[in-house]
Amino acid sequence: DVKVTQSSRYLVKRTGEKVFLECVQDMDHENMFWYRQDPGLGLRLIYFSYDVKMKEKGDIPEGYSVSREKKERFSLILESASTNQTSMYLCASSLIAGGRHNEQFFGPGTRLTVL
Amino acid sequence: AQSVTQLDSHVSVSEGTPVLLRCNYSSSYSPSLFWYVQHPNKGLQLLLKYTSAATLVKGINGFEAEFKKSETSFHLTKPSAHMSDAAEYFCVVSGDTGFQKLVFGTGTRLLVSP
């Protein structure tokens, strides 16, 4: 069974802290994605990666960075957390073969609160 | 650029009655379309997808959706709602780049009353 796991379900941090969110997939997928989900806004893409050490900005990359050192692991980094980054963060992965037809598989999400 | 509009932010039905969640899309390419469901405090799960084969797509848990190119619509239906269907539903269209990006609607919350 396909699986995407995220390191924490709930996280509380203080303004200015550096925050790491980790995501691991066991499906040997090339693509990995980080989204944030806010009420009424749906899912917005922060960053994605199509290969190890490769990354592309999504729609809202400001205030975030990412790291992909291994194929199965994709990390989201908040360099200096701010209260407007309080949100639900979702990680996803997908295959490259088959192109635009491929669905993404999602992790359970991390609910981050920045105080 | 691709976009998705979910026409209702909330839909309320009674258990045993039909469900209709409406979605319109805009795409400059022949799109792939998806419906995902999210139960409370859970990640997103794929319900069904359309990839230019049959226009009527059947998914899990009795849901289906019909791709109508002339109306640019991809509405989600179920003949008879169950209490366990209460969740948030997202209509999704494939992006227009080579990196398999998806574009999400803002979601429709389905409420099911006994």
Plain-language structure description:
The complex is a heterodimer of chains A (115) and B (114). Chain A has 115 residues and is an all-beta fold. Chain A contains no helices and 11 strands. In chain A, the strands form 2 sheets. In chain A, strands 2, 4, 5, 6, 9, 10 and 11 form a 7-stranded mixed sheet that branches. In chain A, strand 7 and strand 8 form a beta hairpin. With 114 residues, chain B is mostly beta strands. Chain B contains no helices and 12 strands. In chain B, the strands form 3 sheets. In chain B, strands 2, 5, 6, 10, 11 and 12 form a 6-stranded mixed sheet that branches. The radius of gyration of chain B is 14 Å and the shape is globular. The mean pLDDT of chain B is 91. Chain A binds chain B through residues 4, 31, 33, 35, 40-45, 48, 50, 56, 58, 90, 92, 94, 96, 99-109, and chain B through 9, 29, 31-32, 34, 36, 41-46, 49, 51, 90, 94-95, 98-102, 104-107.
